[in-house]
């Protein structure tokens, strides 16, 4: 992992190659970073789960079709938001055709999977997908940091 | 993921442990529930206190199980959701779908009051 820190707003660059076995530790680190920068636990959990889903998808649809590729994760955070960019080489997909999860859907549609992207879209404030040259898929996830309300309505 | 089944009166307690995420072991929950429905065991409590990791695959299995149970006139109630699981329920409004309880006993007793 590389931390690029020119100020109090760090950027973490992590390359995950070969397998997902380190993903849980990386997710724990993301949760720690998120709470250190002002996210409530619940929001940090959401960020952690969403980034985990995006990385898992990248492994599932990228690495398995090209064992030499890896998943690059870049996490940056400032006083306004945490942003994660996940890049991998793999087949493209219709990211924007997939609706965010909502509780009025037919849940049976997810009995064999397919909930990853709907869940990401439901958990994060903004989600973007971009197909880059050289078969690179880039998914960007953003969660805004809400200012904590002080007791007594201050 | 491991499933331990315990009968508590007319309620079936399923204690899950391990990783409730990728792979067939998570998807296994839904066929397991369908077998219970065939045996008319439709009041289910899922104890999630020992679930270490959880992701969309595990959530999908829970949702499919819940739907099958509701269609059979039953319910799936959650005991001891971890903070992370509860956070996902909150952020996705699934707290309005799954009745969640801090203890297994509370979840089982909840069936007595409807």
**Which structural class is indicated by helix and strand composition of chain B?**
alpha/beta
Instruction: Kindly report the oligomeric state of this protein.
Output: heterodimer
Q: Can you tell me the CATH superfamily of chain A?
A: Histidine kinase-like ATPase, C-terminal domain
Shape of chain A: globular
Q: Domains counted in the coordinates of chain A: how many?
A: 1
Number of domains of chain B: 1
Number of strands of chain A: 6
SS content category of chain A? alpha+beta
Largest sheet of chain B: 5 strands, mixed
Judging by the overall fold, what is the CATH architecture of chain A?
Answer: 2-Layer Sandwich
The overall strand count of chain B is 5
Description:
The complex is a heterodimer of chains A (154) and B (114). Chain A has 154 residues and is an alpha+beta fold. Chain A has a single domain, classed as Histidine kinase-like ATPase, C-terminal domain (Heat Shock Protein 90), CATH 3.30.565. In chain A, 28% of the residues lie in helices and 28% in strands. Chain A contains 3 helices and 6 strands. Chain A has a 6-stranded antiparallel β-sheet with strand order 1-2-3-4-6-5, with helices on one face. In chain A, helix 1 packs antiparallel against helix 2. A 5-stranded mixed β-sheet of chain B has the order 1-2-3-4-5, sandwiched between helices. Chain B is globular and about 30 Å long. The chains are: A alpha+beta (154), B alpha/beta (114). Chains A and B meet through helix 2 and helix 3 of A and helix 3 and helix 4 of B.
SSE arrangement:
The complex is a heterodimer of chains A (154) and B (114).
Chain A: E1 2-4, E2 11-17, H1 23-36, H2 41-61, E3 70-77, E4 81-89, H3 116-123, E5 126-132, E6 136-144
Antiparallel strand pairs in A: 1-2, 2-3, 3-4, 4-6, 5-6
Helix pairs in contact in A: 1-2, 2-3
Chain B: E1 2-8, E2 11-20, H1 24-27, H2 29-38, E3 43-54, H3 56-71, E4 75-79, H4 83-91, E5 99-101, H5 104-110
Parallel strand pairs in B: 2-3, 3-4, 4-5
Antiparallel strand pairs in B: 1-2
Helix pairs in contact in B: 2-3
